[in-house]
Records
---
Amino acid sequence: MSDLVTLSNGLAAAVQQASQSIFGVTARRRMGSTGVHWRPGLVVTADHTVQTEDDIVLTRPDGRSVSATLAGRDPTIDLAVLKADAPDVPAARIGDSRAVQAGHIVLAVGEGPRASWGVVSSVASGGTGAAGSVFDLDLTLYPGFSGGPLVDVSGQVIGINTSGASRSQHLAIPAVVVDGLLDGLQRRGHIPRPYLGVSTQPVRLPDALRQRLSLEQASAVIVVAVQPESPAAQGGLMIGDVVVSLGGASITDPMDLRRVLQPDRVGETVVTSVIRGGEARDLRIRVGERSR
Amino acid sequence: MVTDLPDLAERLRRITVEVADSGTSLGSGVLWPSGCVVTNAHVVRGSRAAVRLVDGSRLEGLLITRDTDADLALLRVLGTGIPAASIGESTVAVGSLVAAVGHPLGVRGALSVGIVHAVGPVRPGGRSWIQADVRLARGNSGGPLADATGQVIGLNAMVVGPLALAVPMSAVSRFVRAAGLSVT
């Protein structure tokens, strides 16, 4: 048998293997997504595809439907965890995502099953700054593929695919990151949602100010509302403050603020650098938790 | 036995033709057993077309029959020693490798490689396609979609973004048989 036929059979087998553990996810109006039965009773999907917290319906590999509830979500890594009762649907075979390198051939699998192929283009550091926290993919994520498995040539699941909120991205969250999220969920019983109590808008920083304060970033966020009694209020944040960094990470737009507030940071006191009245100052804010 | 991709490309080029009309390249076609060429109905607009083989030889193709619903057309070509495609009706598995040869965007005999994305209708109740995750372009129409062994499993007909749609060989064989010609 030629190498080509061997590869072809291997890829087909990998799709077959992975497809036994995926669900179609209906949790938003226009288009469904895909989810992976990661651990018994827990289905992982892309957070941006879960727009309703009630009425989540999953389609099993055999075509039957089962309802699911939201166990928790972490928008900073675009993952949501659903609880579903489908004990006869096998949990996915999870591979070691730390062994994944740029150039590895991978498959994206969607409900059907449908598949696409390509390679990992880079093992990048995502917004969290930790190396290997996201896989950049050179493959097509077809409509509905978000939340589905990234599969290696042996059929093991090494990540969760997501197009993010924009349709031009092709990324996967590595399996080790998913495991970390689920470990936290199973330990605490929920995924904490970090809360500061502040509303912000993006703002351009004037060149003169940037020069005076030695700031590299061209933009930051300006505080337009502070909730009374909130962690932000208790930390001394005020309307008009321009937040340039939080916990050591530059804040250039409101998305950055959401990105740096990972579930693990609830309870942590973060140094928040602001510009107030043209002068730089540091505030210390203790990250709170959104009530459930 | 197909040994590698360059070998697969060679074999497919031998059975792929360029279909042209008055010097304008219209698309591709597949050399079918017994002196015929199968292509898309939308590639051959008139009752004849110029057919160019990979070795540069030119033949005249005369339209035998056309099915616009199936988007298939059958041409008769006259000549001796014309190769013919190895037609396969093997089961096509999602994820398996596929290769296409055609004349996309003016490039002759270009090879594209991908995998099977799905088999079936694109829309509920629609016709069945071999849907391939492979980057094709307009000049690929009428050309072969083959599996890793070099057997032709479909006829490329349409491109929908990154997805290519091919008419399954079973439908092409049915069309040729209906024209009164045998498959072998």
Note: The helical segments of chain B are 5-14, 169-178.
---
Amino acid sequence: MTEIIVVTSGKGGVGKTTTSASLSCGLARRGKKVAVIDFDIGLRNLDLIMGCERRVVYDFVNVIQGDCTLKQALIKDKRIETLYVLAASQTRDKDALSSEGVRRVLDELTTEGFDYVICDSPAGIEKGAHLAMYFADRAVVVVNPEVSSVRDSDRILGLLASKTQRAEQGNGGVKEHLLLTRYSPRRVATGEMMSVNDVKEILGLDVIGVVPESTDVLSASNAGVPVILNEESDASRAYDDAVARLLGESLPLRFVDEPKKGFFARMFGG
Amino acid sequence: MSRGGSKRNGIDPADDFRLSQCKLTVHFAVSPRQSRRRWDSWRKFFQHNSKMMKQPADPPHESAIDIRFGQVGLVQVRIRTTDPGVILDELTGRIATAPRFFERTAVCLDLSGLDKSPDVAEVRGVIDAVRRAGMLSIGLTTGSLGVEELSGALQIPVLSHFRAQNHQPVPVVQAAPAPQESAGAPALMHQQTVRSGQRIYARNRDLVVTATVSAGAEVMADGCVHIYGALRGRAMAGAREDVTARVFCQEFHAELVSIAGVFRVFETIPPELAGKPVQAWLDGDKLNFGRIGS
């Protein structure tokens, strides 16, 4: 049974693509067969984060328009056996996507035996974002702990509850998860940033992961290696926890409190 | 109904001024359906007459006058005082924002906002004040006490399809089934969070939301609005001007609350009510907020 997970947020720049890359790597690393699709037609990014930009020959729009087969367009990841990337088109615009075409691609991935399809949604609430979420079974709503991101996420949650296939068919709706990124416990402690509980309360949803603000994220993106693969990083551990929770494990949240400084750190100002 | 948050400043003539709260209300009211009905009956009357007139020999000369009927939009001025000075001041202030729009505009006076029925001299003073402000009173609204006598004494018509405030409105579109029946209709029940950008409207009945209303969301009912969660967005009760409608919520953080078109925004809502169980009700044209259960 293929599960379609949309990674969305409404607001741009909150970490959707980073999250899509890391979640898909994390799931694939646990033996699942995963395809990750970039729905941001015209602003192709996922291939860069995944480090496969040199290997894009055919893209999502080519498949939809029948220029190539799905197999030709799926890029096999070099690090993880069971991970495939379907890149967005950089030269087309979002009107090139059609509901029928997206359905056909997702159906084909289902028959190919994929366990998970991760749809990396573009920002905004227009066609690309709409199609990315329309066929989803679950949604990971990426939110930064600040008011505009929270407001936009709320809007997206409203759309997930009304403008998706599951909502229209009335079979339970899309299962929604919240993922906080760029979280800084220090700034929460000083009151500059909203806390996990604030966000949880406003959006009324449970949190599937809290990814701390980390310089590793940027360097991972630049290197084309999803940050989850950098084992040293807190962000990597946080994403791995989120993957575990997606798969049904229950783990306590990490990285939500300011780390206590040890004796030496206090002595030497570390 | 809740267009434009402007108080006294920056009045857009297209706005419904009744939304603001001050001593005097300017209200536009045209009831297209009613006017059409009246027009139809007049037209029949005229067609009938003209047939009758054609029967005798052709009239040798044209008549001195033609009588034609037309429709006009009328500005309704509701007064809460008969003090001409106050009225002149306030009207002048309001008109200053759109002088051309109100210049020699025909207005209809609504006396229902007064505590007691005014005498002829008082109304004459009011009419004079309105005239000095640049507008011309051409009628009185029906429905308030003693208006017929005033009409006779002042030689000014009572315009019947201008309803006085606080009376049940004539619905613009009257549905075929009896509307009274809907008063007993069960409330519209909404169990999920109302998210930013969503709107819920309970027509002809109450609305019950058993979850949170997020910032940027809008819940609306012709009856009361009950929210058993936090209210962070907008809530509007009495959407068809039922002034007895109320808004109730479990945790109050509203952006805007409105009852029968009278609204208050977050900034004018007492801060000590934030996060508390609160109800809002209308007292005259004042929107009040109070804790439930204290």
Note: The mean pLDDT of chain A is 93.
